[in-house]
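Go through this chain for my students:
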Amino acid sequence: MSYRLIALDLDGTILNNDKKVSENSKRVLQYLCNNTFKNENGERVEVVLASGRATYLIQPVEEALGIDCYFIGYNGSICISTKKQNRKTIFSNRLNKTLQSSIYEFADKNKYFLNVYGPEYVYGIDFPELRHKAVQYASMTGAKYQYIKESYKCGILENMPDFEPNKCLAIFEDNDFVDEQIELLRPVFSELSLVKSNCHSKEQGYQYYIEFLPKGINKGQSLVDFCKCQNIPLEQVVAFGDAENDIEMLSQVGLGICLQNGTEPTKKISKMVSEYTNDQDGVARELIKLFNLPLDLIQ
């Protein structure tokens, strides 16, 4: 198959466990995105970075790669065009006031540390006993926080700017607890999509998340919608991921590849499991094989 689009998850996939883009990954992706490179059908190859992160937290990864990419952010809630195309919004889905109210009240009642994603900042209640979760999250993702002193009142967050977020996210430290909670929450939040995700670094260890998204939203559906807009057949898409929030994306495309460090549920649905991890340049090594690139790009 001659692939036209490469979809890349960030954390645990194109980023290593030091949260860096390796030199090997840079060389391979810059080679593929060079204006002179064409696939077997004579077509240019595009890259979309598909992440649970806010788009402004995806951009530093694009800059580290040194290529111009499309972004799918907030696990599918938003899609924006390349820098060359002036970063236009292709589509965006948001949580309305009613949905926000139900999420805020539930988080307050159960003492979840909740991220509410604004245009420039992540907003969160300043519970002293939970603030370490935000500190860890910021260290791993680069997020900038605005802490709100007051708690939730009447379903609103006081002293927070008036906007409709693309998603909210609750932070936890136990994987099994998240599995239990997400199943209990599905009937409670039937008008939302609930997505499990995680983040990991060598220094900070693991965090686990429950993400609250508009109904029907996930990376896979957004990649399908993006490909329709761009007239790219799904069979000409190769996607890389590692975690449960990548499952829909990996299962929708022509070739979904889970890296060796991926979770077992993600490996199970993937068409291919790489023998390499994110710390072993798994994405770069698989792309060299798929596109028959020069082997000396890996050094």
In short: The chain has two domains: 5-93+217-297, 97-214.
